[in-house]
Amino acid sequence: MARMRFLTFNVAHARGTLPVHQGLRSVVKIRSNLLKIAALIKKLRADVVAVQEIDENSRWNGSFNHLTFLSEHCGLPFTAMGLTNERAGRFPLNYGNGVLSRWPIKHAETTTFGRSQLGDKGFLFIETEIAAGRQLPLINLHLHHASRKQRLLQAGKLMKFMTERAATRGAHWVAPPILCGDFNNPPHRPDATAMLLGFCEQTNNYTLLPKAGRTFPAALPALSLDFVFVPQEYRVTHSEVVRCYLSDHRPVLVDFDLD
Q1: Could you read off the pLDDT of 198-220 as tens digits, one per residue?
Q2: For the chain: N or C, fewer Cβ within 10 A?
Q3: Domains and CATH numbers, the chain
């Protein structure tokens, strides 16, 4: 029996809790906040961390790889970056979703929902090897923040992807994929979160976590937007919304056991 600790966190480009643009933050402030996020990951003793709104090389945000920086300071040596926005040139802008892992990441794929404009969302699929030849699959997503129509279309694209990968790669999985990230809608509404949970429950008994607690905005949380979908093969022993003020979202922490 292996015990694992998992964390999902929209880090908001490391700008902190205030609703100001990250381009108005100094590089010193950005690095300072990333160091605090890394310290939180170490304090929580997380084994796998999924992050959203993480920058790779963006002029507005210090022009350095934030995921690599976190890895170097939090003790999780393996990373995968899934860029959903890419712009080169004099003012580069590159960011998306990322994963930090205690175990080697053997496979990674990025799907972007659309490349029509800046601010596009998408998901990162990874397989981290927790034992010889046995992979733990994970999907880290970020859905549209304003349009229910777009979220439902994005959920449909994700469901198609999950069905295809289960057929082609599932033989080496220890369990179906954990699904996590910033869903940008609560589960009690007829929206993408409920749609995805219904799909997952058709093929496997998934649990949506956290069962209580709100994640946004971090200072005075009013909405539940960030979730972890856990398959029945993982026996959940604890979950919580972590109280912290390092982003406009609060992270979600889940402990589980796996044979």
Answers
A1: 999 888 899 999 999 999 999 99
A2: N
A3: 2-258 (3.60.10.10)
Helical segments of the chain, H only: 27-44, 66-74, 148-169, 192-203
What does DSSP assign to residue 128?
E
Tokens of 205: 């008994």
Task: Tell the residue number behind the tokens 């890394």, with chain if given.
Answer: 38
Q: CA 105 to CA 110: how far, in whole Å?
A: 14
Q: Are strands 134-142 and 178-182 parallel, antiparallel or unpaired?
A: parallel
Q: 65-70: long-range contacts (C-beta < 8 A, 24 or more apart)?
A: 66/11, 66/13, 66/14, 66/30, 66/34, 67/98, 67/100, 69/31, 69/34, 69/38, 70/34, 70/37, 70/38, 70/41, 70/100
Chain-centroid distance of CA 64 in Å reads 20
CA–CA distance, 56 with 67 (Å, rounded to integer):
7
How far apart CA 159 and CA 157 sit, in angstroms, is 6
**pLDDT-derived band at 9, boundaries 50, 70, 90:** very high
pLDDT tens digits, one per residue of 179-199: 999 999 999 999 999 999 999
DSSP structural state of residue 13: G
Structure letter (DSSP) for residue 58: -
Nearest-5° angle of CA 189, CA 228, CA 167? 100
Distances 59 to 29, 188, 251 between C-alpha atoms, Å: 15, 38, 26
